[in-house]
Amino acid sequence: MSAKAAAALFFIIGLLSSIGGAVLAQSAPPGPPHIFAGRATINRALAADGVIVSAVSNSGELLGTAATHNGRYVLQVSRPSAGDTITFTAGGRAAAESAVWAMGGTTILDLTINSASAPLPSGLDQLGDNLVRLFHWDARNGGWSYYDPLINPGQRLQHDLAPGRFYWIRVQRDQVLLQEGRQIQLVAGWNKVVWQATGP
């Protein structure tokens, strides 16, 4: 092989090696996330299933979300683009806790959320913090009325609970609802209730 041919061959080998290295570098995965897990407590009660827990950097970058199950969450948090401090929300409300991100880290972190709750609809004050959410379909206006302490605190139904009206009521745990001597057994989750009491 001539010197010129050998030089050309080495050049091609070097070029292919550099291209292969570039492709390998481009396909390399990012560093592993930081995993946070623990309980989510909202107004001193474990969060209901399906509450969204979010991790946010101190620059406002959303780094990960997860839904609660049995009052707990497991959240994979990707590396923030700036800073290492992570704050958390549950149901759109800020948690009191924060943490420092570390590549591949695992942290058990219980989240505490205290939000200003709307007044309970008349007749449901006996449920206290067991009441998660309530919906009523307003056929006259063609829309839903609702009560939810985590969405727009202060939101109320367009009326107090009224006899003969149908409501979807979600509670965190089983409880007996008293309606002027009538007992209604509510189970954890959603319940269909036709309101009978006339209220105060």
Fold blueprint:
Layout: H1 3-27, E1 34-42, E2 45-46, E3 52-57, E4 62-67, E5 72-77, E6 85-90, E7 93-100, E8 106-108, E9 111-113, E10 131-138, E11 143-147, E12 166-171, E13 175-179, E14 182-186, E15 189-194
Parallel strand pairs: 1-8, 1-9
Antiparallel strand pairs: 1-2, 1-5, 3-4, 3-6, 6-7, 10-11, 10-12, 12-15, 13-14
3D structure, described in words:
This protein has 200 residues and is mainly beta. The chain folds into two domains: 80 residues, Sandwich (Immunoglobulin-like), CATH 2.60.40.1120; 70 residues, no CATH class. Strand 10 and strand 11 form a beta hairpin.
Give the class from helix and strand content and strand pairing.
Answer: mainly beta
CATH topology grouping of the largest domain: Immunoglobulin-like
Gyration radius over CA: 27 Å
Unreliably modeled segments = none
Q: Rough shape?
A: elongated
Number of structural domains:
2
Fraction of residues in H or I helices: 10-25%
Q: CA-to-CA gap between the ends?
A: 104 Å
User: What is the mean predicted local confidence, pLDDT?
Assistant: 79
Specify the CATH class of the largest domain.
Mainly Beta
CATH architecture group name of the largest domain: Sandwich
Helix count equals: 1
- Name of the CATH superfamily of the largest domain: Carboxypeptidase-like, regulatory domain
Largest sheet: 5 strands, mixed
Strand content: 35-45%
What are the secondary-structure elements, in order, as H or E?
A: HEEEEEEEEEEEEEEE
Number of strands: 15
